[in-house]
Protein 1
Amino acid sequence: MKSFFEFLEEILVKKIATLAAVASVVAVMFVPGQASAESAELRITGTITPTACTLVFTGGGVVDYGKIPAKSLSPTAQTNLPEKSIQLGMTCEAPVLFGFKVVDERAATAVTSLETIAGHAANKKFGLGAVDGKKIGAYSLQLVSQTADDGPAVSLESGNGGATWVAFGQIGLVGDGSKLVSFLTGSGTAPNAHTSVTADIRVVTAIDKGSNLPLTQQIPLDGLSTFELVYL
């Protein structure tokens, strides 16, 4: 038969064993790296967009020569139509560095042998469309004056995507999209940022000699060029 002291010792041993088991379970529950937790992600999104700019021509971008009597055309030489002008306005929401290029949508119809503006090369002569496979003529565009942010500006031209620029007093616009045009106020050799620019454009048009055209029918002039804004 167990003595009182032996009985008490047995109870204490069992209590200690139970406490040790509980302690080991608690230790496992709090071991770093073994805890389980919920998570949530925060993403930062958005898009940085360039300052919006618009290009607008006065008169809706139409240079209208009206009705041209066939009898007024020379049968043996080109006929030069009266010179016209149109104004291009470029407006931005804030000062931004920009330019434009020109693409002749009727380039295949240009009669490049005609003289429009003296000294203009073939890529500066735009097409006027064709009738029955006969090319009508050619026209050229020339920047003659420009104002940027209410002050005088200089026209600049780049043939290498804006890497370098050349200043001209009056730039004859190229219709194959290979040249960029931009503007400079103050001193420098490269364009600077502007909020608004207005440019006066001279339009010089020539019709091919009458003997090359089907003058027994109406011949609509169909010149079309696209001015494309370019952020620099």
Protein 2
Amino acid sequence: MKTIEMSFLPDVKVACEVCGGLRFNAETLMVRHRGKSIGDLLAMSVDEAVGFFAAHRAILHPLQLLQDVGLGYLTLGQQSPTLSGGEAQRIKLVTELAKAKPVKDALRVPRNAPHSLYILDEPTIGLHMADVEKLVRVLHRLVAAGNSVVVIEHNLDVIAEADWLMDLGPEGGDGGGMVVAQGTPEEVARMGGVSHTGRILGEFLRERGSEGEVKRTRE
């Protein structure tokens, strides 16, 4: 892309007239794999690329991991400055997971993978509810492999899945900074008198329990 300065107006970006925005010269774009140039491949979404590279396990594995963390909509050539904070964190997670040797079960991480501490800050920002569920499964995979995961989060679906919660408060900003409650989600949910998180989490868990009862009754 070319940036045209417009003096007192915002800059305007236009596609390069030589490459048409594909980033490569004509000689490079002439090289094709299954009818696609490198420019065409970088314009693919992760979801599209999974089908295209199904026969290439070394490429397919990280693509499937990107799907697992809810990033199937990103294009392969998307520039890193355009990523949100949550997207960037999840890509870092994929980078770590991809270091492990691929296994037959896509929801399992080998026990011989290096053990690490992961600290994530609001990784669910901008995520659809279905993608939050995918992210939670990935976090469970990391823990099942012997790693530790610390998540700063307000999403109740993630909070309810934690092994241990620490609620800082009692308010935000100058009114906070104290550990007002800690324990399993069920234990913190019983501390609604001192913890805003506990009160809201208690309501959430009760609703989830009711939905579970309805589901079992229907089954």
Protein 3
Amino acid sequence: MGARVEVRRSRRRRRTIDAYREGDTIVVLVPDSLSPTEERAWVRRMVARVERAELRAAEPRKWGDDELMARALALSDAYLGGIAKPESVRWVGNQRSRWGSCTPRDRTIRLSERLQRMPEWVIDYVIIHELAHLIEPQHDERFWGWVSHYPAAEKAKGYLAGWSDAARIERPPSERVVGSHDAAEGGAPAG
């Protein structure tokens, strides 16, 4: 056990044992009735469970190009009436200042590998954002109208903006202009 562990005993807790991360500490909640031997065994088990869950959560998604394409087509059908049909959708590692990009001319979409550790609804937002460029290439009112069909669009924009701010990634110039919603280039929405 490499993590700092704090055991909290409770008289009210009868049978359940729980554990969670609180900052740098793993807190294990146990009934007061456990013996020291039982406590040690449960603490080892619960710390291992928390650490396994954290490792799983930190693993990047391994969606291949085929899965990304299928996801993009399903999102297009669900939110854009099926009219945005990309030729390819793939992960790229060279996008340091964008979440995604789209080339309408050849109908290709590229997604930053940084997204792989983010919630699926955020990845879906970036895919929708890029799909909308296949319908409306510019970040104009019509474009944002298409993007707004995705119910979690505003929430995802906020998530990406917060992530960027926490990582101290400068937001794109278009984010600093009143009325603009460009998300592609820095740390906010998509691209």
